[in-house]
Amino acid sequence: MTRFTDSPYEYLMTQKPYAGRERDSGPVPYPPQSRCAGCPYGSGKPCIGVCMKKLLSQSKKSREGDEKHGKNA
């Protein structure tokens, strides 16, 4: 292919974008013995430092307790 200019950037602009090529294999899952295995936050996302399993189970328990006592949120 002939180029219009001698600029090295012209060659780079004709290439396909490189973004996303390293993720073709998909996210690496946590090992089964890890405390983060089965996290509902999402696989492949970085850890946010808060155990979402604990957080969701606590909120579920509090909702069940509110329903038993007749509290509406």
From TrEMBL:
Protein name per its UniProtKB record: Uncharacterized protein
Source organism (scientific name): Sporofaciens musculi
Superkingdom field: Bacteria
